[in-house]
Amino acid sequence: MAQHGTLGVAVVGTGRMGADHVRRIDRVISGARVAAVVDVDAERARAVAGPVEGCAAYTDPAAALAAPEVDAVLVASPGSAHEAALLEAFRHDLPVLCEKPLTPDAASALRVLEAEQRLGHRRVQVGFMRRWDPEFTRLKALLDGGELGRPLLLHCRHRNASVPSFFTEPMLINDSVVHEMDQTRWLLEQEISAVTVLRPRPGRDAPPGIGDPQLVIFETEGGVLVDVEIFARCRFGYQVQAEAVCERGTARVGDAHGMLVNRDGRWGGEIAPDFTVRFATAFDRQVQAWVDACRRGTVTGPSAWDGYAAAAVCEAGVRAQATGERVAVELAARPALYQD
Ligand SMILES: NC(=O)c1ccc[n+]([C@@H]2O[C@H](COP(=O)([O-])OP(=O)(O)OC[C@H]3O[C@@H](n4cnc5c(N)ncnc54)[C@H](O)[C@@H]3O)[C@@H](O)[C@H]2O)c1
Ligand SMILES: O[C@H]1[C@H](O)[C@@H](O)[C@H](O)[C@@H](O)[C@H]1O
């Protein structure tokens, strides 16, 4: 490890998330520095590397990951480029924080699992950052403590003020509801066994042919029902809420939005404009936990198995969305490397 135990990180993909992670490693968290950035867009890579001391800009991930200053890799390229970046990181046996999704489909996620198993040890943490959100970690601790009894239902809301114009209907599942898939598996410690997608009439802001909002229902292997409202163009702000209904009580997160203001005969709180604000603390804690684990030579957080399981549920979800039918999730057997 370079420079007094400081972790040298290569950030692959310097778009919205990648640039934000570069800022976070450079200015917010401790124990790491950005040694290299990679982007197929050379100008973008140079622009992001410029203000960071000692950071080299590359267009070829293979060249960057072979650099001696690089001890670990943060993958923030589009999902379709994740598999290649992960396999390149494995070639050098480097630890990886891979933004969600691990890969865009279950078959490619299985290939990543197989490659990691060939290494013989886990190297991947998947960027399901809600696992580090202070409210969600409290909910998890409450459910784990058991004082509310067993969870029976989980009501989730996932609202984005807007999404890019290229956002397709399957992306409601693959890009957005993938978070609730991981959140459900993590909070309940159960696999999701089936998915159904229901549609109300589309909102007026939904592009032609795209049903937005949608209601996505998960059934878990332990008999819990989970409903997820996904509304990608709700206009008013970014809202992620979850309420667990248990045998002896309920618990809900995602309502608190900073300040409460009394004014002009009204009272109310703030709503975050987007995920970078709502989950700022979660992103910081996620990357700090990854850096700390890398420096200890261990892994933490959601594994490649969790990334694969979410991809398998996404596949069922996209089929349920297209057919209107209840679709069972097909999951491979969990390999020994991911048993704990
Ligand atoms: N955790 C979250 O809440 C969250 C939020 C947003 C995005 N993401 C994830 O982060 C990733 C990036 O999303 P984004 O919004 O920053 O996208 P983006 O389009 O803003 O940026 C992607 C960047 O990757 C570059 N790129 C494309 N192919 C590449 C390759 N093969 N090698 C290197 N660079 C390449 C592009 O030129 C672009 O600069 C995606 O996986 C996305 O799902 C996660
Ligand atoms: O890529 C983004 C990101 O993952 C956000 O966390 C989610 O709320 C959005 O719906 C999705 O488009």
From TrEMBL:
The keyword Oxidoreductase applies. The keyword NAD applies. Residues 8-128 form the Gfo/Idh/MocA-like oxidoreductase N-terminal domain. It is an enzyme of class 1 (oxidoreductase). Signal peptide: none annotated. InterPro entries: Gfo-Idh-MocA_inositol_DH, Gfo/Idh/MocA-like_OxRdtase_N, GFO_IDH_MocA-like_dom, MI/DCI_dehydrogenase, NAD(P)-bd_dom_sf. Residues 136-251 form the GFO/IDH/MocA-like oxidoreductase domain. It comes from the Bacteria. Keywords: NAD, Oxidoreductase. Its EC number is 1.1.1.18. It catalyses: myo-inositol + NAD(+) = scyllo-inosose + NADH + H(+). Belongs to the Gfo/Idh/MocA family. Homotetramer. Involved in the oxidation of myo-inositol (MI) to 2-keto-myo-inositol (2KMI or 2-inosose). This is Inositol 2-dehydrogenase. The lineage of its organism: Bacteria, Bacillati, Actinomycetota, Actinomycetes, Kitasatosporales.
